[in-house]
Amino acid sequence: MSTNFLLPERIKPYQIATEVSDIVWHKVITWGWFEKKTLGAQFVESTDSIAANIAEGFGRYHKKDKQKFFYNSRGSTYEALHWIERAKTRSLISEEKYSTISQQLTGLPQSINWLIKITEEKLER
Asked: Which of 47, 50, 94, 100 is the Cys-Cys partner for 17 at CB 3.0 to 4.6 Å?
């Protein structure tokens, strides 16, 4: 029996989160020193944290432990939404880039909620 379904890379929220974090990284590295230090580092950390917490949740054994990391991932998504708004307001990203990133981030909490729910329903402990 194949266990590929257990890999985070096969789960849509993880795929979206890694794509977003790479987009954000490639944008932030073009900013000036002050912008990187004040907003950019936190923006990159929050987007990187979304996929990282999903991956870490997959590595945990007990369902409550898994869910804790999925909740952290959802929290990082909301943090990233905060930073994308700040980047737009401060004219650090184009309207097109803002639209692409915010659209992907906006759908992530619902997908992460699915991970939390399916973990609750399918795992015994």
From this structure: 50
Q: For the segment 36-46, what is each residue's pLDDT rounded down to a tens digit?
A: 999 999 999 99
- 22: containing domain: 9-122
Nearest residue to 12 via CA among 121, 113, 125, 120 = 113
Residue 2 located in a structural domain: no
In angstroms, the CA 37 to CA 11 distance is: 32
CA distance 15 to 28: 20
User: The tokens of 91 are what?
Assistant: 């004219």
Given a cut of 90, whether residue 6 has pLDDT beyond it is no
